[in-house]
Amino acid sequence: MWFRKGRKLKTACAMRKIEATVQKQDLLCIEAAAGPTGFVVFGASGDLAYRKLYPSLYELYCHDLMSHHFYLLGCGRSDLSDEAFRDSIKNNLQQTLDRPNQEKLHTFVRHFSFVSGDYADDSFYQKICQRMTVQEEQFKVNGSRLFYLSVPPFLYEDIAGRISRMKLHCPAVSGRMQNVRLVIEKPFGRDLDSAENLDRVLHHHFRESQIYRIDHYLGKETVQNILIFRFANSIFEPVWNRNYIEHVRITAAEQLGIEHRAGYYDQSGALRDMFQNHLLQMLALVAMEPPVSFEADRLRDEKAKLLRSVRPILPRDVPAQFVRGQYAAGAIDGRPVVGYRQEKGVPQDSATETFVAGKLFIDNWRWKGVPFYLQTGKRLRRKLTEILVTFKQVPHSMFLPGEWADMAANTLRFQIQPEEGMYLSLQAKRPGSKICMSTLEMAVDYQQVFGVKMPESYQRLLLDCMLGDQTLFSRHDSVIASWQLLTPVMEFWKNQQNLVMYPAGSDGSDTQNILAK
Ligand code: BG6
Known about the structure:
Layout: E1 13-19, E2 37-42, H1 47-62, E3 70-76, H2 82-96, H3 102-109, E4 112-116, H4 122-138, E5 145-149, H5 156-165, E6 180-185, H6 192-205, E7 211-214, H7 221-231, E8 245-253, H8 262-287, H9 296-309, H10 318-321, E9 322-328, E10 330-332, E11 335-337, E12 355-360, E13 372-377, E14 384-391, E15 411-417, E16 421-429, E17 437-445, H11 446-450, H12 457-467, H13 476-494, E18 499-503, H14 512-515
Parallel strand pairs: 1-17, 2-3, 2-5, 3-4, 5-6, 6-7, 8-13, 9-18
Antiparallel strand pairs: 8-14, 9-12, 10-11, 12-13, 14-15, 15-16, 16-17
Bound molecules: 6-O-phosphono-beta-D-glucopyranose.
């Protein structure tokens, strides 16, 4: 596979898997239920809301992590009655969830209502305000308001401004400003200028502590586990640096294409869609210094510092450090799929990348000289998101004099999805009279060990929005640092024809030249 280029160990037999024994005892378990909350969802009849938001809220509701004093006011252009909105949510949950509890479903959707209008019309916001007051009284929601913008990003500034001008963010009952939150989804801008402009507008109306920027990768269990792994175990920190680590590879490979999002995706591409946010956030968690405490801003300080330490990419270095590709027609799991330019809504001469790989260096004491390879693409052979840490080889092998360079290095792999887990590879002696070395993999499979279905990342993120915990949300300085880093790449690509075509279902584009070590 292109995204794992391990050398073959001549002497070793095929890698064997051994299961780790895990004590199923919780040392620390922090869980808090949210207090009364009013959700005002813009874009409430859109795809994201139905696929992620409502199912996640329902799960929180069923697990008693949500107060029963809540309401959800859907806002959108569709002409929907309250009844029709509730029915559509109920039907959707019935189809997507595994045997939902009918009674719970019925009481859950009673908290939902809908108001339709035009986002650019002030009278729409007046209607919203009136309905909020009614819902707040009916469900005894005291002051907590969460404005969730599930709309195309070009509407963020306008809607946020109108929420503020029409004073929707001034709770009628308690008047407590700190309980008003604005939730937005990535992308936060499309380059440095637009990201700075978005921040200026949002900060004009809301304080940073009220803004929740969702990067759903940060809500994934296995991504959160990086923090526990690094900072609750003492044995890895001494080797977590340039002296022991050869390189780190972060991969997010998808089988999916662009689905029905040609309009958005063709303006975005893999660099903006995945690299600038999900990949760089994972990089920050893997490479940052230990935060002084597990508090939102202490953790986010370290992430921002790390992103600012990534070596700036000069235009002349872009061809050596970055490669981009686009999928052509091919087959996935034996099923023929069309090329990107044949997807509905994509121009036939589109130069948008559906694959990107980049090599980054972090200029600080810990990481100087260690390459970090980040890569992501659509329509690849299989879905795989992982962080692979490759340690340095032994300096000398007494077992294979002269051939030690072929001995496999230890690797530590965080598999984010699918089949979430952690895997540590080791060399070990194969039982028998001969000296025969095997590479073993100590495996921790999350599902197997903990025996629970992995929660959807939005569940955790929505709960945190309600609780007012910003730990897993992107802060403006990290967002700006990542655009600062990637803007020269985007600028350089504007005038280049350097798009590599790869067949859908393959292992990706020809990245040998920059990714080969
Ligand atoms: C989104 C991107 O942020 O992440 C999509 O916009 C991508 O293009 C998706 O498919 C991948 O998320 P996941 O959780 O399936 O890896």
